Amino acid sequence: MTIHSAVIQKLLSTNAHLGRRVAAHHFKIYTYGARNGVTIIDSDKTLICIRNACHFISNVVRQKGKFLFVNTNPLCDDIVDQMTKRIGCGADSSWRLGGSRNKKLHLGSTQPPDCVVIMDTERKSSVIFEADKLQIPIVGLVNSDMPWDVYKRITYPVPANDSVKFVYLFCNLITKTFLVEQKRFEEVDNKQLRLTKAENREESENLKQTMMSSSKDENPVIPYESLDLTSDDPVETKQLLDKLVVIKLNGALGTKMGFSGPRSATEVCNGLTYLDLIINQIESLNSKHGCNVPLILMNTIRTHDGTLKVVEKYSQKNIDILPLCQNQSHPVARGRDSEDESVLFDHHELFLSLKNSGTLNALLLQGKEYILVVKYDNLGTLIDSSILVDFMELSEMAQMPGKNSLEKSKFVDTGNLWMNLKVVKRLVETDGKNVENYPLSKSFDRAIDVNVPHSRFQPMMSTSDLFVFQSDLYSYGDSLIRNSARTNSLNPCIELGPEFEKLSDFQSRFKSIPSIIELDSLKVMGDVWFGTGITLKGKVTIIAKPGVKLEIPDGVVIENKEISDPSDI
Questions:
Q1: Do residues 468 and 491 lie in contact, with contact meaning Cβ atoms separated by under 8 Å?
Q2: CB-based contacts of 72, cutoff 8 Å, min separation 6
Q3: DSSP for 46-103, written as a single string
Q4: Is residue 41 a contact partner of residue 31, using CB atoms and an 8 Å limit?
Q5: What transmembrane ranges does the database entry give (predicted)?
Q6: Domains observed in the chain
Q7: Tens-digit pLDDT profile for residues 105-161
Q8: What average pLDDT does the chain have?
Q9: Percentage of residues of the chain with pLDDT beyond 90
């Protein structure tokens, strides 16, 4: 039995899956249907909501926030009492929310709380309305017949039967969440103590720098290898992938390379475009697992019409493709930077486009829960279910070396963002101002970066990138396949001059792309023309003199050379 199956069995043993006889329309996204007149709550979705709630609670604890725990069920009094004593929240109820005099409160401070946790939301709604009025986040257990007017005010709903067994399980998870964060506080305090007592000045300075750098990190970075492996159970894998939607930001034109349409429609190799590659990958995933992962192409006004023409050829593919035109409340930037998706990407505009087009609600009604946003034309993009298993809101970061091999390695954004679709909905409906005014990482309660292999970052921004992908270094199946004959884990550094910038010039100047399996770097400037069957190795520089046409003959092998004249070959 897998860990996931064991957890689900634990949930079932608490009767968390047994709802009321009536399921409100807004609650149906959490249900499997009904049996014997009783609504059956989807335990997988209960588990996801528990994880989201615990992530939020963990974040509030980390910020040393204050909590208010509310319970009116006398059968659960002892359970809640034990929890609050273990986590250090006493029974001080001298500060009260309006209308809560008959409720059992556990508050760690006489100041207004930063989070309200309610064990029995259906008994009285006064606390929920008051907390919502004061804009205090609410974590609460919700059942199938909860009215929409109450449900919509709960920030982190946990769909479940509020049985004594489930309340015990939920309180136990909250306790563990608190204790983990409190242990981290102790470790930080101990580190600070070691710092103040360090006799060695160098040791003290290094420790300070370590603490300062860790505190400056906007998001924690976790290694890809530490993620949970995908389940071997094909049914579980299918269920997981069925909750995913891929969104490709498709706002960049190929004008820099002399291509008038969307850059994603530029041919990469063997007649395949970038769009072909990502669609083939999703189609293969759908066919292999019997799932339905759709693709949304988020266009701009400049690329929408061209994209509609391009997607016509995919009508027979086993994939649902939805082209959308992104809302734009400000003019699109013009000029050189306007071709870069990272400049065009505005998460506020993206979220509003999904909401205003009705796509957001439609996806949720279809049971979709997660989105993978692909920001760049990154040929290394993989739809990775291992990341999907673990994330709440993740962005992939690849560790890449600098131009000098002795430089310290740096992280670069691969352009892939994993987000919870329900959190996106809540952001645009209840916290729209925050989404508009703050960076993406600040709009989510818990953002994490995953350090993926640098092979995941293979952007196609120019003909220099195209040179690599059209060479013998790569081939194409369902995704990008690297030639195993190359021993260097990094791609060669390619710099083609302005004579190669336009796609038509690039294609005419190469009869065929040279073999670059053993190439470290290539710089080409001036009026240079390449024959066929050429092999490049090591560091190669080819710079034609002004007014001179330099032709590289067929079949030549060039290794560690600087060439400016035919006699140098």
A1: yes
A2: 102, 103, 104, 120, 123, 124
A3: HHHHHHHHHHHHHHHHHTT--EEEEE--GGGHHHHHHHHHHHT--B--SS--TT-TTS
A4: yes
A5: none
A6: 3-180 (3.40.50.10490), 229-329+341-456 (3.90.550.10), 488-568 (2.160.10.10)
A7: 554 445 678 889 998 877 667 888 888 888 889 999 988 888 888 888 888 889 988
A8: 78
A9: 21
Structure tokens at 554: 């067929």
Three-class SS of residue 384?
A: coil
Residue 66: φ, ψ to 5°: -105, 145
Q: Are 78 and 46 in contact (CB under 8 A)?
A: no
DSSP 15: T
Residue with tokens 């520089």: 541
The pLDDT value recorded for residue 446 is 60
The residue type at 108: G
Element (H, E) at 398: strand 394-400
- Summarised one tens digit per residue, pLDDT across range 63-83 is 888 888 888 888 888 888 889
What counts of helices (H) and strands (E) characterise the chain?
A: 19, 25
Range of lowest pLDDT (45-49, 451-455, 479-483, 512-516): 451-455
* Residue type at position 96: R
> How far is residue 275's CA from residue 502's CA, in Å, rounded to a whole number?
20
Residues 6 or more apart from 232 whose CB is under 8 A from it? 2
- Token reading at 198: 């360090």
As beta bridge partners, residue 68 has 107, 116
Q: What pLDDT band is residue 532 in, cutting at 50, 70 and 90?
A: very high
Contact 148, 121 (CB under 8 A): no
Cβ atoms within 10 A of the Cβ of 74, count? 8
Tell me which residue of 443, 447, 293, 282 sits closest to 363, measured CA to CA: 293
Burial of 30 (0-12, 13-18, 19+ CB in 10 A): buried
Instruction: Find the distance separating the first CA and the last CA of the chain, reported in whole Å.
Output: 65
Alpha-carbon torsion (306, 310, 311, 312), positive or negative: positive
What pLDDT is stored for residue 405 in this prediction? 36
CA dihedral 177, 438, 447, 375 (to 10 degrees): 160
| 220 burial via Cβ count (<10 Å: 0-12, 13-18, 19+) | exposed
pLDDT at 228 over 80: no
Q: Which two tokens stand for residue 305?
A: 């019409």
Residue 172: strand, helix, or coil = helix
Task: List the beta bridge partners of residue 142.
Answer: 159
**For residue 78, which of 86, 4, 378, 411 has the smallest C-alpha distance?**
86
Residue 209: helix, strand or coil by DSSP? Answer: helix
Q: What's the whole-model pTM score?
A: 0.56
The three-class DSSP label of residue 294 is coil
Consecutive H or E run containing 304: helix 301-310
DSSP code, position 378: B
